[in-house]
Amino acid sequence: MVAVTGACSFLGRNLVGVLEEREDVERIVVLDIASPPTAGRKSRAYRVDLTQPAVSARLTEILRAEKVTELAHLAFLASPTTAEPWAHELESVGTMHVLHACRESPVERVVVSSQTMLYGPHPANPNFLLEGAELRGLRGGGSSPFGRSFGRAECSFLADKIDAEREVERFVQARPDTSVAVLRFAPMLGPTVRTWVTRWLSRRIVPTLLGFDPLVQLLHEMDAVSALVLALDPSRWEHGRGRGAFNVVSQGVLPISTVIKLAGRAALPVPGPLLTRSTELLWMAGLNEVPSPFVAFLRHLCVADGSRARRELGFVPQFTTKEAVLDFGGALRLREAHLLSPSA
């Protein structure tokens, strides 16, 4: 029995759709404020709002009644929001509620979605970051009692996800018999996923940082869903395997300038102070994808090593970073052509 929180997110609705087609899955317990369109006859939907104070008791009741043994926790935002208190309740506090319910129920496997962006863009980053690297976000500091360092990100979008990983570490210490995997996805790209990255690359003129052109990784949306399915496969986590953090990344890296060209857009290099100031003003006005701290991702390297996911989960990406960009760019041009056609 598999439960999915955040079932209406991109990862959630696609995972539910895949599980609906699998013969070895009897029932899918959908946990969200609505039911995704991919839910079918196997799905049983429960309206659950992770921002509510008493939600852990509700979750515990559901997980026990449905005899859930595997849970995918996917209730995380794909893009920053100005509603920071709500986002904190959803991601940081919401993860605490979910894991508390797992402690009180028969759940044997927990898979949590995260992002490689949590490592943060820093000048001292190695070419490829391993899973044990510090989660510094956009400003470093601090360490956890479990031997892994955590930073408090300068913007809440990363800070709340770092807090969620900290909650996972506490859960692992309290419930060592439960198999837990954290999948840190590289920024996703593809024909249907919608994130701050896809909106940034959808601009005809894409702002970049003058004098900097760091390498980036972009994960195709189909590969992200495939990694989730693998992580929930019991054969991947038996005998103590498949536990801990896993970088889920594509093969190959590209300079930001090349990504923009492959997507069919034009780059506009902007001096650092001007780009930072304009980004913040547009964010405050609700006209930008991200706040100003994200300019750091246009300055420094933040790419991850995916060998552990290949070795322990059997995850082999079907798309390279270049292929993910080309697929996104092709779909983007088709949408634009349709909007411009007289019959549209």
Structure, described:
It is built from 11 helices and 13 strands. The longest helix has 20 residues, at 84-103. By secondary structure, it is of the alpha/beta class. Mean pLDDT is 92; it is low at 140-153.
Could you outline the blueprint of secondary structure elements for this entry?
Layout: E1 2-5, H1 10-21, E2 28-32, E3 43-47, H2 55-66, E4 70-73, H3 84-103, E5 109-115, H4 156-174, E6 179-185, E7 188-189, H5 196-201, E8 205-209, E9 215-216, E10 219-220, H6 221-232, H7 234-237, E11 244-248, E12 254-255, H8 256-262, E13 266-270, H9 272-284, H10 307-313, H11 321-340
Parallel strand pairs: 1-2, 1-4, 2-3, 4-5, 5-6, 6-11, 7-10, 8-13
Antiparallel strand pairs: 9-12
Helix pairs in contact: 1-6, 2-3, 3-4
